[in-house]
Design brief:
The complex is a heterodimer of chains A (429) and B (305). Chain A has 429 residues and is an alpha/beta fold. Chain A is 44% helix and 15% strand. The N and C termini of chain B lie far apart (68 Å). Chain B has helices spanning 12-19, 22-30, 55-65, 82-95, 134-149, 252-264, 276-279, and strands at residues 5-10, 36-38, 71-75, 100-104, 156-159, 164-166, 176-177, 181-182, 197-201, 217-219, 227-229, 241-245. Chain B is globular and about 70 Å long. The chains are: A alpha/beta (429), B alpha/beta (305).
């Protein structure tokens, strides 16, 4: 890509409760229960608006992982949490994850459109199919449906939700009789300022990308390398075109795990300290889940054996993310590290999502590079610890991007859909 | 005899009107009523109004935009599941500092019924579901209560020395298996103000819940807090409180005007602010039995890689 893109990038923040690193809660800047404190969440919203950021993103699932050492598994319900934050903010977009497996499409459609109405048209629904047996057991099921079934259901689920959102505008009943759902009725919720919520899709499986190409307006992608990101960017935009949509109708924002410092050394020190303050068992547990192999059985000081890196025996029952696994295996094959080296390396390079450790200037360079390479429309930034990490993005990274003409100085649009439309168009490919 | 307290019943159009107006929100927030029901028409057998909003979405707005007013959200397990309801109830309680509660209904007046063989939650297409009756709603209320209590708030210790944030071995499964099979635990802790108040709607004695615990308040003519339509006179008989319910022909201003007048004419004033449980003078519910199955092992101080 040689010609420079015009316009600005999209910047979202993936709010992993207190930050993506398990030890984020240990800072004296936080109370022991900040993760359930309304002021903590409202302040995140206000800080994001100070930087004219496009959106705040919240992951979700109807299950609890062990919160013994980490606030990350704690999940306030996103439409409620972002609804409260919406009352404290006026422009920042709010992305709520909700499962297409463990909801009824009528109730979720009504709730999402109501919430979008309440935010003044700043809402987005991130569609996930949800993995994990504990979620199934909260809904009377012994196990989750197979991946293909979950995506077939997700596809029909999204169609029902969109039809119901349309019904709110037309006042005409939906008559849907499909494989999974039967709905005769309509929503009585007033359409929102942006009509209806933006639809996001996260996940890098082939079924997920196809669903994104058909219906999503935003994709939260997982990319470790620029070349891989360019390839997937073109693939998903191509899917959109195959469905008769404009590539501009779908914005692609990979996640980027961040530790920032005023020098590179300071950033590495911050990252090291936060990592060392968290439990080692987490890294091993995370790796096991991510690659579908019990990593505690691996020799820490040996390279990964070939059988660990091969194709999955059964993608249907694999409980991790196919997209994450793909990017992790590619990374391991590239440098052939020992298991311990890999686990330490991922401190700086990311794990599933790409990682970045450096200065605000270097981060701006990185964003600019990937943007002009046609790998992204923006990034979903994931600070190591939000309570002080978000302010660095807002007060130091954003001004650099503004100076380079890559970001707006003030909000020029009101709704999330308008924020998306105002961003840089897709470069030719 | 103690004067009854006043509460407000809002139907769909009032939710839209109230949440869109800073002036109305401010007026609502200052009113010395016990609580408001957000979308009482969703569960009281009314015909659906031309417009409404999901009750929890309005609750979230009130949690963020007001400081004092207390409210019940209305939900029914018709197109909704108790785990999902419990999540919204607990989240609202955290974010509103305990100003919120749940009015559980049997039917959702705004939702289409699910499949004939399982009209409650069967529409989710997961193979489960239950009859659309009082027992199902009651079981949903029991599940919401158990889930809200499955993670004790006091287990959050934040010990920086040992690296233990939560004594997660104190979090328990709920292991319910009645109208809904739910393992639990909930993925948020119990609110600092305790488990949310759960109310039931009963217009006649036949509508009463099949059991008492965890139902702490019965709204409607069969309960301790009858509903009076705006335009009618308040009841003369001794009751704990009265829900003044606006009709579709009334605006929020009409409702607030009448409420202010009634409050001046002898209803007990309930000071704005504080938790819904405290405002209603309800004691904390009993905790889950100590025999409940631990969800996680005892956390150990950790070591770095």
């Amino acid at each position: 890509m040689t010609s420079k893109r015009s316009g600005h990038v999209l910047l979202g923040i993936n709010v992993l409760v207190l930050g993506y690193l398990p030890a984020a809660w240990k800072t004296p800047l936080l109370k022991k229960d900040s993760f359930i404190d309304a002021d903590y969440w409202a302040n995140l919203g206000r800080t994001a608006e100070r930087g004219t950021l496009d959106a705040l993103f919240l992951a979700d699932g109807p299950l609890l992982g062990d919160p013994a050492y980490d606030a990350n598994p704690i999940r306030l319900e996103p439409t409620v949490n972002w609804g409260q934050v919406a009352a404290a903010t006026s422009r920042v977009g709010l992305v709520a994850t909700a499962s297409s497996t463990f909801n009824d499409p009528f109730e979720l459609a009504e709730r999402l459109l109501s919430w979008d109405h309440q935010t003044g048209g700043r809402a987005a629904w991130n569609v996930v199919t949800t993995r994990g047996v504990p979620a199934a057991r909260n809904f009377g099921m012994p196990d989750i449906p197979f991946r293909d079934d979950r995506y077939e259901r997700a596809s029909e689920f999204v169609d029902v939700v969109r039809a119901l959102w349309d019904s709110a505008a037309t006042n005409s009943d939906v008559h849907h009789h499909g494989e999974f759902f039967h709905v005769e009725g309509r929503l009585r919720v007033p359409p929102s300022k942006q009509g209806r919520p933006i639809i996001f899709q996260a996940g890098g499986s082939s079924q997920g990308r196809a669903l994104a190409g058909r219906v999503a307006e935003g994709v939260f992608a997982a990319e470790l390398t620029k070349n891989q990101a360019i390839e997937h960017y073109r693939l998903v935009k191509g899917f959109a075109r195959d469905y008769g949509r404009s590539p501009d109708d779908i914005k692609i924002l990979p996640g980027l795990l961040l530790s920032l410092g005023s020098t590179e050394e300071e950033a590495r020190r911050r990252s090291d300290e936060l990592h060392d303050a968290g439990p080692a068992s987490y890294s091993i547990g995370w790796l096991s889940q991510a690659i579908g192999y019990d990593a505690s059985k691996l020799e820490l000081d040996e390279p990964f054996p070939e059988d660990v890196l091969g194709p999955l025996n059964d993608t249907q029952t694999f409980s991790g993310s196919v997209g994450f696994r793909e990017s992790i295996i590619a990374q391991i094959r590239k440098t052939n590290p020992t298991v311990r080296e890999y686990l330490k390396q991922t401190r700086y390079t990311g794990s599933g999502h790409a990682g970045f450790v450096g200065t605000p200037e270097q981060l701006a360079d990185h964003i600019e590079d990937w943007f002009h390479a046609g790998a992204i429309d923006g990034f979903n930034l994931q600070p190591d610890r939000l309570i002080d990490g978000l302010a660095v993005i807002v007060d130091e990274v954003v001004p650099i991007l503004r100076k380079r003409g890559l970001y707006r100085h003030e909000y020029e649009t009101e709704t999330l859909r308008e924020h998306f439309r105002a961003a840089s168009p897709t470069p030719a490919f | 005899m103690t004067a009854p307290y006043l509460a407000l019943g809002l139907a769909g159009p009032h939710l839209v009107e109230l949440s869109a107006s800073r002036a109305l929100l401010s007026r609502w927030d200052a009113l010395p009523v016990a609580f408001s029901v957000l979308g009482i028409d969703r569960v009281d057998g009314s015909t659906p109004a031309p417009v409404t909003l999901a009750s929890s979405a309005v609750g979230a707005t009130l949690a963020g935009a007001t400081k004092h007013g207390r409210f019940f959200i209305a939900a029914a397990p018709q197109r909704d599941h108790p785990y999902n309801i419990a999540r919204r109830v607990a989240s609202l309680a955290h974010l509103s500092h305990g100003r919120s509660g749940l009015l559980i209904g049997i039917r959702d007046g705004y939702a289409p019924e699910g499949p004939r063989q399982a009209p409650a939650w069967g529409g989710a297409g997961l193979g489960g579901g239950a009859p659309l009756n009082a027992q199902t709603a009651y079981d949903a209320a029991r599940a919401v209560r158990a889930l809200e209590q499955s993670w004790p708030h006091s287990s959050i210790i934040g010990n920086r020395e040992t690296g233990i944030l939560v004594e997660s071995n104190r979090i328990v499964h709920v292991d319910l298996d009645d109208s809904f099979a739910i393992a639990g635990p909930l993925n948020a802790p119990e609110p600092a103000t305790g488990a949310s108040v759960i109310a039931w709607y009963a217009a006649t004695a036949a509508d009463n819940p099949p059991g008492s615990d965890p139902i702490e308040l019965i709204i409607g003519d069969a309960g301790s807090v009858p509903v009076v339509a705006l335009g009618k006179e308040p009841p003369a008989r001794g009751v704990a409180g009265v829900v003044l319910r606006a009709g579709l022909e009334h605006s929020m201003d009409d409702l607030l005007d009448t409420a202010e007048r009634w409050l001046a004419e002898g209803f007990a004033l309930v000071a704005p602010g504080g938790s819904l449980r405290d405002a209603l003078g309800l004691s904390a519910p009993a905790p889950l039995p100590a025999t409940a199955r631990a969800a996680f092992p005892v956390p150990r101080p950790h070591v770095a890689l």
